[in-house]
Amino acid sequence: MSTQDSAFDVFKRKLDHAIAVCQQPEERRIGFGNLRHEYCDWRRGDECDTNVAVIYETPGGSTTQLNVTYNHQTGEFIYLDENLESSVTTTDPEQALHYIEEHVRDIPHKRLAQVEKTVETWLSMGKGRSEIIAEFNKMLQTEFLGGRVNSVELKHGIQYLMKVLKNPPSTQ
């Protein structure tokens, strides 16, 4: 086994564990948007790369995907920076893993922000309090795990709804 393969094996083992921690119990899995990952190998002549896709959803079903590519010949991990503007290249598996873990750690906050946007959208459509609560109930029970809301998100959404209804934004 080469040093490069060893670095990828370390990365893969740690990533598998980090994702698994976010998948149980179901309430946690929902809060992390049904987080999952896939490895896909592809070849160009003698070169072999592995694309690592980390996928999750926000309430309502919008899907987000992070990608890290590992070149087995050079031992380089390649991914986009946090602004999605330029490539980052490193041979350090911990750096690539840190990039993913930082993004994953923020998923529950992104989901709560999406719940707030959804409330605002429903209000702008003219839906009232009882209609919005009914919509949340649908999101609580949907079959699509990543589009579902968990109890924390449901509570946050209802509290946000009440706050907005109590203090509507001024329209000038």
Strand and helix map with partners:
Layout: H1 3-21, H2 26-31, E1 36-44, E2 47-57, E3 63-71, E4 76-80, E5 87-90, H3 93-105, H4 107-124, H5 129-141, H6 151-166
Antiparallel strand pairs: 1-2, 2-3, 3-4, 4-5
Helix pairs in contact: 1-3, 4-6, 5-6
- Can you give the mean pLDDT? 91
Number of domains: 2
What's the end-to-end separation, in Å?
A: 66 Å
CATH architecture type of the largest domain: 2-Layer Sandwich
How would you summarize this macromolecular structure in one to three sentences?
The protein is α+β, with helices and mostly antiparallel strands and 172 residues long. It is 49% helix and 22% strand.
What does this structure look like?
The protein has a 5-stranded antiparallel sheet, with helices on one face. The longest helix has 19 residues, at about 5-20. Helix content is about 50%, strand content about 20%. The chain has 6 helices and 5 strands; from the N terminus they run H-H-E-E-E-E-E-H-H-H-H. Helix 1 (about 5-20) packs parallel to helix 3 (about 95-105) and helix 5 runs antiparallel to helix 6. It is an alpha+beta fold and about 170 residues long. It has 2 domains: about 5-105, SHC Adaptor Protein (2-Layer Sandwich); about 110-165. The protein has helices at about 5-20, 25-30, 95-105, 105-125, 130-140, 150-165, and strands spanning about 35-45, 45-55, 65-70, 75-80, 85-90. The model has no long low-confidence stretch (mean pLDDT about 90).
Annotation keywords:
5-stranded antiparallel beta sheet; 172 residues; alpha+beta; 2 domains; SHC Adaptor Protein
